Every structure is written in structure tokens, then in C-alpha cells.
Amino acid sequence: MQVTIVKSKIHRVKVTGAELNYIGSITIDEDLMEAANIIEGEKVQIVNNNNGERLETYVIPGERASGEIILNGAAARKVAKGDILIIMSYGIMTMEEAKSFKPSLVFPNEENNLLQ
Q1: In this structure, are residues 15 and 79 in contact, taking their beta carbons and an 8 Å threshold?
Q2: Which of 32, 44, 70, 100 could staple 27 via S-S, CB 3.0–4.6 A?
Q3: Residue ranges of domains in the chain
Q4: What predicted TM-score, i.e. pTM, was given to this entire model?
């Protein structure tokens, strides 16, 4: 049997932009991507704490140390600048693998930067 579990989570980041006229995706500061073990093109689930919206899209890297969290394309209609998001990705593994797996959890500061 295989199970789907949380692989990566960026907890409580602030939306810095929403670009409707753009091919869909979410732009994430590359430092945050690296810390959360999320790669370019990876599918993510996004939960908007401000309005309850949930959506899925793929990741494109943003400028390092910029704090960028930008929703692009149709996803831009689901957020407003300043909204607080949780970004998660999942992995599929055997039950035995899942029992010992530790997800990458990232808790950025209010400027979407890694805590030092």
C-alpha cells in the first residue's frame, strides 16, 4: 500500500503580488523553495488563510532573499496582496517509508524571509 503524506510546507507566508496576465503558477523566493525542499515545476497546494480558498498549481523560482510570493494567472483571482498562505507539497511512499519520513517545514518571518 502507498500513502500520500506532506513532503514540504511553507507556513504563513504573505502574498507580495498577483499577476493575472501571466501563464499560471506561483513564484516563490528560491531561498524558501530550497529550505522547503520544493523544486521548480513541482505541484503545490495553496491554502489562503484570509478567505479559505484552496488551489493547486506549480512552482517557479523567484529571486533569492526577495520574499516573493506571487500568484500568477487564474490563481491571482484567489488572493489579494497581503493575504497569508500555507504552501504544501506531498509525496507518495510506502507505509513503511512514511513512518520514518520527516517533512521539510519552513516558518518564515513576516517579510517572507528565513529566520536566522
Answers
A1: yes
A2: 70
A3: 2-94
A4: 0.95
The tens digit of pLDDT for each residue in 35-68 reads 999 999 999 999 999 999 999 999 999 999 999 9
Residue 58 bears catalytic tag? yes
In 3D space, the residue among 104, 84, 108 whose CA is nearest the CA of residue 38 turns out to be 104
For residue 24, name the pLDDT band (cuts at 50, 70, 90): confident
Class of domain 2-94: mainly beta
Contact predicate 87/42, CB 8 Å: no
Task: Say which of 8, 25, 66, 89 is annotated catalytic.
Answer: 25
Looking at the predicted structure, is the pLDDT value of residue 116 above 80?
A: no
Three cell numbers written together for 71: 500568484
Confirm whether 90 is a catalytic residue: no
Contact 52, 86 (CB under 8 A): no
